[in-house]
Amino acid sequence: MSAKSVFVMNADTGEVLYEKNPDEVFRTLSLTKLVTAYILVDRMGDRLSETITIDRPHLTGGSSAKLRRRDVWTLQDLLYGMVLVSGNDASLAIADAVGRDLLTADGERADTAKATKRFVDEMGNAAEALGAANATFADPYGLSAKNAATARDMGLIAAKVFTDTRLLPAWACTERTLHIDGKRPRDVVLKTSLEILGEGSVIGAKTGSYMSKNIYNLVAAWHAPNGQTIVGVVLGSTSNAARYGEMRSLIDALPRDFPELGVTATDASSRPADTCD
Predict the structure, then answer these.
(1) Measured between alpha carbons, how far is 204 from 171 in angstroms, rounded to an integer?
(2) 5, 63, 86, 91: which is the annotated catalytic residue?
(3) Is 60 exceeded by the pLDDT of residue 88?
(4) Domain locations in the chain as residue ranges
(5) For 108, which DSSP code?
(6) Which member of 61, 83, 210, 272 has the greatest number of CB atoms within 10 A?
(7) Out of 30, 63, 209, 237, which one is annotated catalytic?
């Protein structure tokens, strides 16, 4: 592994399968969105059909899910826009919606800025509850350098995210067409930028990139032949191609290094990957 930090664990058992400098802190960049996704379903998992009207504060630079002012998006579709195409705009809209819900529960009134701050506070609480002791957050999408964590932290977060049945459908399709209501109703096509998604037993993934600073991170999850869920974290790879190549190497090597993972499951404990509908 040429990546600066690597962490692999069995999400079902908690067993650490491989590590390299797992406790060095790195910028998480868009890996941050895994925490945003987790809080969304943890707080509003039975309410993903609820909608939010997009306003100017939700529109930001960087990667985009094509939100427009006065669009009406469901929380479910915002989740797709955040994980498939890493939409910073979708992340902000989610943070606003969930932050307002949290503030309402606290008995407080909210605007977008206050709701987003409340959401970011909740990100820290969620990471701590998952054992990600070094994780820090300043925004819901990863632009700030204060969004940081270790590979171990991200592995613990990913173990929760990629075993949550409410989240797995978000990665089941490499391309989704969404119908967006609002001032200008239209269809939006989201085609994933995650090269590893849809390969073999991979059930989900998220990248974090800062190309001008040569930072390339990747988190992925897959089902081992025995049906158990494995999560891998690669931080500080030397290039986009390197991070994917190293993750594929991990996927290929683990059943050889851990023979119990390579035994094909035939009973009900086997969990097939979600299928795209």
Answers:
(1) 5
(2) 86
(3) yes
(4) 5-262
(5) -
(6) 83
(7) 30
* 3-state SS assignment for residue 129: helix
Q: Residue 86 catalytic? A: yes
Q: Is 63 a catalytic residue?
A: no
Q: 34 exposed, middle or buried (CB, 10 Å; 0-12, 13-18, 19+)?
A: buried
Do residues 93 and 52 touch, judged by C-beta distance below 8 A? yes
Angle (deg, nearest 10), helices 88-105 and 75-83: 140
In order, the DSSP letters of 53-102 are: E--GGG--SSS-----TTEEEEHHHHHHHHHTS--HHHHHHHHHHHHHHH
**With left for phi above 0 and alpha for psi between -120 and 50, is residue 221 left, alpha or beta?**
beta
Using a cut of 0.85, tell me whether the model's pTM lies above it. Answer: yes
Which superfamily does CATH assign the domain made up of 5-262 to? DD-peptidase/beta-lactamase superfamily (3.40.710.10)
Q: How far apart are CA 194 and CA 183, in angstroms?
A: 31
Which tokens sit at 158?
Answer: 């990913």
What is the number of other CB atoms lying within 10 angstroms of the CB of residue 213?
9
